[in-house]
Amino acid sequence: MKTSHDFGLFTLDVRADFEEMAQRLRTVGNQAPHVIRRAINRVGDKARTKVVRALVKQTGAKYGTVRRALKIRRANYGELAYRIVGFGGFLPLSAFSARQRKDGVSAAPWGTRRVFKQAFISPSLGGHVFVREVHGGSRVGRLPIRELFGPAIPRELLKDDVKATFESTVAAELPVAAERELGALLSGFAPRG
User: How far is residue 81's CA from residue 84's CA, in Å, rounded to a whole number?
Assistant: First the structure.
């Protein structure tokens, strides 16, 4: 059984325009990268939460499944970027509340329940959903069979509402967070370094 792997990646990068803040950042000298790093990580964490919720809604997958498919690489001293990376292949149809019916299998990939005609759940093959291969308009016999799959988290990470959620969160929150971190540093409330 083969699964396809497609890696999705969001990057929150500091190379955005901070022209009006640049002068204030110059006043803190070598502490500027620390201010930006903390702001990026704060906004990245907020964006991750919103991205996970959007992925659950968009794919129909369970929250825990989506969280396990994402790896986070926070901004650090060497790289001022927050990364949300999607791992894994297409999720099996059985992960979407699959139920056997007389006419096939009912499941809810992409958040919409529908019936997959002539599909069946095989308990002996891990409870996954299969359909018999059809050649020349008629079934050949019991075999061959192929497994049915739903969405792949890495692909969905780069589409529709998920991508829009990430971009809008970063655009709205990053300047505010950077200003907050800078103010905290200048007033002595943030640690140096």
Answer: 10
Q: Alpha carbon 82 to chain centroid distance?
A: 13
Q: Which two tokens stand for residue 20?
A: 């009006």
Residues counted in the chain: 193
Per-residue pLDDT 10s for the chain (193 aa) are 333 344 455 554 444 445 566 666 667 777 778 888 889 999 999 999 999 999 999 999 999 999 999 999 999 888 888 999 999 999 999 999 999 999 999 999 999 999 999 999 999 999 999 998 876 666 667 788 999 999 999 999 988 899 899 989 988 998 889 888 888 877 776 666 5
State the sign of the Cα–Cα–Cα–Cα dihedral 51, 52, 55, 56: negative
Helix (H, G, I), strand (E, B) or coil at 17: coil
**What does the alpha-carbon distance between residue 4 and residue 87 come to, in Å, rounded to a whole number?**
11
* Cβ–Cβ < 8 Å for 180, 186: no
Domain definitions of the chain by residue range:
8-89+153-186, 92-150
Q: Return the structure tokens found at 160.
A: 């529709």
